[in-house]
Amino acid sequence: MNCVLLLIYPGDIAPLFSLPDAQGNFVSLADFRGRRVVLYFYRYFFANIC
After folding, report:
1. Alpha carbon distance 24, 22 (integer Å)
2. Contacts of 20 (CB under 8 A, 6+ apart)
3. What is the pTM of this model?
């Protein structure tokens, strides 16, 4: 698994990415273009640590 460290700050435009939802279906940030989105991540929660 490749890990990339990308720092973003409040007000920055988020990079496009896709992640699996609770059912395993991939959801892309692009699916929400033009709408407000809140991203909330738990550090190391249910994730493989690289």
Report:
1. 6
2. 26, 27
3. 0.51
